[in-house]
Amino acid sequence: MRIIAGKYKGRTVKFPKSNLVRPTTDKNKESIFNFLVNQIDFDGIRVLDIYAGSGSLGLEALSRGASEVHFVEKDFHVSKMLEENINSLNAKNECKIFRMEAIRFSKIKEHEKYNLILADPPFFNYDVHIVVKNILDNNFLEDDGIFLVERSIQTKGKDEEAFQQNYFRKLGDSLIYIFNKEKKLL
């Protein structure tokens, strides 16, 4: 896996060999960021990468100009690899890792506001439905913020019922859902 664009372009992002992590493919990441670049000015934004895994999505945003990226990753060993990836970019001052479950993080009442929130949970993990609701209800997004969730085509029915909207875009076997502060698809 690599960083596609920006100041860290071409740098490798390591990920653990574990069934706990399902990294977004470079092709999907490129499609996601091609869309986002037309929606957001990355310079100086604050980003939240939930279910961060190796941190590939958040580090891509950092490379493109985000000033601060917060990562949420519950697994200790996976978060250690995330920390290695951050350190390999000398980006420790711009990054913060929250070692906790996404549901617990999404319930925090006193929190930062983010311009971009990225969620790429394990495909058959359904706690993301609660996390999306909590984040939107608890006002994690800035007024012009975007919340992007990557899911599997195999979970489409349950996801669309829980999110109360259709997917935005299909990328291979992934479906992309996008929310704004009003909980609506863009």
Automatic annotation (TrEMBL):
Pfam families in the record: Cons_hypoth95
- Gene3D superfamilies from the entry? Vaccinia Virus protein VP39
The record's EC number reads 2.1.1.171
Which spans of this chain does the record mark as coiled coil?
none
Alphabetically, the GO molecular function entries are: 16S rRNA (guanine(966)-N(2))-methyltransferase activity
Would the keyword Metal-binding turn up in this protein's UniProt record?
Answer: no
InterPro entries recorded = RNA_MeTrfase_RsmD (IPR004398), SAM-dependent_MTases_sf (IPR029063)
| KW GTP-binding (keyword) present | no
**Keywords from the named record:** Methyltransferase, Transferase
Top-level lineage group: Bacteria
In its UniProt entry, what is this protein called?
A: 16S rRNA (Guanine(966)-N(2))-methyltransferase RsmD
Its source organism is: Stygiobacter electus
